[in-house]
Write a structure and sequence with these properties.
281 residues, 7 strands
Length: 281
């Protein structure tokens, strides 16, 4: 199961300036604070006119944001799924994760949880079901839903948009070699949390989202990816990488050589010690 996999305690990386454990090239899913980003009407009107859904938010965050934007009791939007009749792919089995497309949505006087969720899913279908995405998914021997799942991982893992194609390639390379993805981001999703620390106990979590114990992709996307992450998922950057580590912000290193990766990790650890040292008085 853990072919060519080093002990996870030896490997760390950073993501967007934050630190997280890594096993073999993948890690923590970042989550934004679950509050809506609202645009207010002019002339002193305090009613929001639009809701901005950022890339990488999980469905649970979006439900909470819609509740807040529409001044509904907590849990209203999630409950509305039962009557929203969302046009999701069969593989989703009614779970809209991955299909609540990040964008700006107007909040008209008739806006409701159902209408907003429908708009998000309809937008995702327009973006994901076109010929480029369908052809790209087929070219990589997967369906569109699997492509969205990989895009969600890329969205969570890439330190920068420039790294997305390489992160996608790491995912493909590990899948093709029969190696577990071992992504802390999927464990965080299973545990409904966002943390920078994953323990050995966490990696034994009994969940289909535990990519330490389960081979292949998680059963659903783990967030709602944007277009750039989707493009990376269907057109990953060519390369043989299996590992990556962000030594410091702006310096993410990808490699197929485990020994080189260890050297990169050692440099990362040295950077952390340096930054943790108290400043001289």
């Amino acid at each position: 199961m853990q072919m060519n996999t080093p002990p996870r305690s030896t490997i760390r990386l950073t993501r967007r300036g934050r630190f997280a454990l890594i096993a073999t090239g993948a890690v923590v899913a970042g989550t934004a604070v679950a509050v809506p980003l609202l645009s207010l009407a002019k002339h002193g009107d305090t009613r929001p006119t639009s809701l901005v859904v950022p890339e990488g938010w999980r469905a649970a965050q979006i439900y909470a944001a819609v509740d807040k934007a529409l001044a509904r009791p907590a849990g209203t939007t999630k409950k509305s799924l039962a009557v929203a009749h969302l046009k999701l792919p069969n593989d989703a089995e009614g779970n809209p994760e991955g299909y609540l497309f990040p964008a700006t949505y107007p909040l008209g006087p008739k806006a409701s949880p159902q209408s907003l969720l429908s708009s998000m899913v309809d937008t995702a279908n327009r973006r994901f079901n076109g010929a480029p995405v369908a052809a790209g998914a087929q070219r990589n021997a997967m369906n569109v839903y699997q492509a969205v799942t990989i895009a969600s991982i890329v969205q969570a893992e890439a330190a920068t948009k420039a790294d997305m194609g390489k992160v996608a390639r790491v995912v493909f390379n590990r899948l093709e070699r029969g190696m577990p993805l071992q992504m802390d981001s999927t464990i965080n999703y299973a545990l409904n949390r966002s943390t920078l620390h994953t323990t050995a106990k966490d990696t034994r979590t009994q969940s289909p989202y535990n990519s330490y114990q389960r081979m292949g992709l998680p059963p659903t996307p783990i967030d709602n990816p944007g277009e750039q992450a989707m493009r990376a998922a269907i057109s990953p950057t060519p390369g043989d990488w299996l590992y990556f580590v962000t030594v410091k912000p702006g310096d993410t290193r990808f490699t197929a050589d485990y020994q080189q990766h260890l050297r990169n990790v050692a440099e990362f650890n040295a950077e952390q010690k340096k930054s943790a040292s108290p400043s001289p008085k």
